[in-house]
Amino acid sequence: MKSMLLTIVLTFLLSDTMKAQSSSIAFKWTPENEQIVSREFRKHFKSSYLSAGEKRKLEDCLISKLKARYPNGVKTSNAAFLELCEKIGIECRKSVKLNVLYPWNADNEKTLKKETLSMMPEGFSASEKKAVSGCIVNKLKAGRKSLKSQTLV
Known about the structure:
Elements: H1 2-20, E1 24-27, H2 31-45, H3 52-69, E2 74-77, H4 78-96, H5 106-118, H6 126-152
Helix pairs in contact: 1-2, 1-4, 1-5, 2-3, 3-4, 5-6
């Protein structure tokens, strides 16, 4: 569950920036552009509960995988770039093995409910989907409180 939450949070963090920009992305890999991409990732990780080392590892992983996929620079649509960042985020999350507790707020809860609703099987009624989604969010919220209290002891 924690890994799914991290994936969802990474996706939304990256998507906010992508939506605010134009419909396509194009740049060559230069030291300056690499610093810009790194700065964007750092901006998004700033509000997370990742340690400085975890943030750096995740950032390094994301940049190295982006450069491996786009060795001559990036030229693609926002949607394709966002999809690629999501996939890379999943790969990096697995390799970096993060211990993450994201701040719980109404916006994150609303986003998580929306995402879990979109993943429900076709055979569920709207009320069943809403009940299961609410249950998932409540369990994650309770589990997060439990984890947070364990880390404070």
